[in-house]
Protein: Glycoside hydrolase
Amino acid sequence: MVLHVFCHQQDAHVLEKVIVGYWGYWESKLLPIEHIPWSQITHINYGFASVNEGIEPILTNEAQLIRMVGIAHQHNVKVLLSIGGWLGSRSMSSMAATHENRTVFVDKVVGWVLEYGLDGLDIDWEHPGKSALDCNTIDYANDADNYLALLRQLRSSLDAAFSTIQMTANNQSSTAAADNGHRLLTAAVGTTPFFKNNAPITDTSHYAQVLDWVFIMMYDTYVGKSVIGPNAPLQTSMQAGASPQSFSQAWSAWTSAHMPAHKIVMGLPFYGYVAKPKEDAVTLRRLLVTAHTSRPQGDPDDDLSAPSSCPGTKRRGYSGLWKWRSLYTSNVLLDAKTPGGQWIKNWDQESQTPWLYNPGTVVVAHISAMKPRFNTIYSDPPFDKLRRSRQHLGQSQLCALSQRKRSRNLGPSL
Structure:
């Protein structure tokens, strides 16, 4: 489960703190629904319904969703259904391509909102107009425009479906009307605005008119790259081979494209990756070193038996992923600041990112020398990172509940 916190502007004078968490049905063992810290959140997104075959979305684990809604509402927490995700966006482009296809989708998901008593929808199309999974359909020229048409149709249908509820609530109390009359529509997005003809669009104001907020997925920055780098850098590094993506870059990209700041939620993870460097990262005193092509195993949950991303393909190996909580249970970290065992904590000044290094050695074939074994990139708790970016504090925060050390609170009060 991932959590994001931000101040949502309801009108010109009022800022309301909103704390939203993502929870996937596959996380039921790691974080059972009844153990979710309900008193610390205001909204929860249930993931994921998918659009993988044809144009009609498919809802998995309906019973879990029903249970989620019931328990969440007992705690006065609103529930949104997330649709898509990294593994569930294969047919998003085809679905959004025509009015007829969009209508099938919209009718289905708005029907779910009515049927299950949901408080809104979260669209997680990864990614319009841009390559993601190899098996995703994509229309480089039209995805961005089609996505806007889809969001407008969703907004209109949600408003129409609940207008009767709002009128009934108005006859009862203004509080009930405010709670029942508006259903949320949000979107999970990349670190740059939606792509059109292989370039990000420069104006997202029309999207802002129909969305309550966008959640920028600011993580996995160096996954699949040939170098080892920070999972969620605060600043963009100027070193050769560095990714241009960072917290500051993503914030600037979206605000420059006219997404209102109060509608931006920045995503930061409570996990990182382990990789095997070809160079001595500690001697070089920098993160961006060349990585071996295959990742070593991450934490104990990093399983080779997990399904591949696309049908008919084989998984390429371990992901190398370490959850924040696993750093504690495996004694990689003794507390937030103290590494355990052979692990050494380091700091990358350019990206403003901490990282860990294990000087355990292996013998490299044909070379009579000892080489560094593993380099793990991880993040300090996101609240600490955001304190170092004062200009953004109060706009957005995020952490991963199912991956955090369970005894910890979510973070300081905002």
Q: What stands out?
A: Residues 10-14, 173-178, 361-400 have pLDDT under 50 and may be disordered. The longest strand covers residues 353-363. The chain has eleven helices and 21 strands. The chain has two domains: 2-269+381-400, 274-377.
